[in-house]
C-alpha cells in the first residue's frame, strides 16, 4: 500500500514533467493554459471540499479540522511570500506573457512548485488511509493543476539559459519528491490518532486553497477573464460528480 501511495503521488507530480515538455519545446496559446488553470482550480476546490475537509471532519471533528486548515494556510502563505520575493510570484504564468523584471527566477519557481506539490502529495497518501483506495478526484485535480505550472516554469528556465538536462532534472526530481511525500502521508500517519490525521488532512486542504487563490486563479482570470468563472464551475461540477460516483 505504501508503494501504491508513492506511485499515485508520482503520477500526479509527473504532470509537471508533461507540462515542462510542452512549455520547453512548443508554443501553447495562453488562453488554453488559462482555461486549464481555471478548470483545474474548480476541480481542486471540489476535491478539498468533499474529499479532504469532509474526511477530516468525519475523522477528527471541527476543532482538529479548523486548526489544521488555518495552520496549513498560514504556513503556505508565509512560505509563498518569501518565494515571491525571490522571483517565484508568477510561477504559473504562461511563457507568452513574460513576468515583470525580477519575477522569473527559474530555481525559485521550481522551489515554489515543490511548495505547491508537497501538501497535495501528502493529501494523496492520506486519502489511502481509509480503505486503502486512493482518491481519484484528488489525483486528477492535482494532475491538472501541475500541467500549467510545469509548462510556464520550464519556459522560464529556458529563457534563463538552462538546458534540457537541468530543466527536466529539476522537474523529474520534484515528481520523485511528490511520490515520497505521498508515501510519507500514508506511512507516517497510518497509526496516528483520528484527530492528528484529521488535522494533517486539513493542513493540506488549507495550503491547497491558499495556493489556488494566490497563484492559479489570478493567472487564469488574467487571460480567460469573464470565462474563468464558468470554466472553474465546470471543473468543480466534474469533480463533484466523480466523487459521488466513486462514493
Task: Provide a brief overview of the structure.
With 247 residues, this protein is mainly alpha-helical. It has seven helices and no strands.
Based on helices, strands and strand pairing, what is the structural class? mainly alpha
Uncertain ranges = none
What Rg, in angstroms, do the CA atoms define? Answer: 17 Å
Cα distance, first to last residue?
20 Å
Main sheet specs: none
User: What order do the SSEs take from the amino end to the carboxyl end, as H and E?
Assistant: HHHHHHH
Percentage of residues in helical conformation? over 70%
User: Strand share of the residues?
Assistant: under 5%
- Give the strand tally: 0
What overall geometry do the principal axes of the alpha carbons give? Answer: globular
Features of the shown structure:
247 residues, globular
Would you kindly provide a written description of the structure presented here, covering whatever features stand out?
This protein is mainly α. Helices cover 83% and strands 0% of the residues. It contains seven helices and no strands. The chain is globular and about 50 Å long.
Amino acid at each position: 500500500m505504501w508503494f501504491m501511495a508513492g506511485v499515485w503521488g508520482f503520477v500526479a507530480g509527473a504532470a509537471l514533467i508533461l507540462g515542462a515538455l510542452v512549455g520547453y519545446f512548443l508554443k501553447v496559446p495562453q488562453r488554453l493554459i488559462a482555461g486549464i488553470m481555471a478548470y483545474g482550480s474548480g476541480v481542486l476546490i471540489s476535491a478539498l471540499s468533499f474529499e479532504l475537509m469532509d474526511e477530516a471532519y468525519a475523522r477528527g471533528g471541527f476543532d482538529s479540522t479548523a486548526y489544521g486548515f488555518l495552520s496549513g494556510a498560514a504556513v503556505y502563505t508565509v512560505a509563498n511570500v518569501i518565494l515571491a520575493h525571490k522571483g517565484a510570484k508568477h510561477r504559473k504564468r504562461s511563457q507568452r506573457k513574460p513576468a515583470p523584471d525580477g519575477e522569473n527566477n527559474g530555481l525559485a519557481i521550481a522551489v515554489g512548485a515543490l511548495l505547491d506539490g508537497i501538501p497535495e502529495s501528502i493529501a494523496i497518501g492520506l486519502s489511502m488511509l481509509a480503505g486503502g483506495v486512493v482518491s481519484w478526484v484528488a489525483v486528477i485535480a492535482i494532475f491538472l493543476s501541475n500541467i500549467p505550472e510545469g509548462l510556464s516554469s520550464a519556459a522560464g528556465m529556458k529563457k534563463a539559459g538552462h538546458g534540457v538536462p537541468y530543466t527536466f532534472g529539476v522537474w523529474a526530481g520534484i515528481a520523485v519528491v511528490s511520490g515520497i511525500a505521498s508515501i510519507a502521508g500514508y506511512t507516517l500517519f497510518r497509526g496516528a490518532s483520528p484527530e492528528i490525521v484529521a488535522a494533517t488532512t486539513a493542513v493540506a486542504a488549507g495550503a491547497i486553497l491558499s495556493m489556488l487563490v494566490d497563484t492559479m486563479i489570478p493567472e487564469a482570470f488574467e487571460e480567460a477573464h469573464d470565462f474563468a468563472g464558468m470554466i472553474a464551475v465546470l471543473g468543480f461540477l466534474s469533480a463533484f460528480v466523480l466523487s459521488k460516483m466513486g462514493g
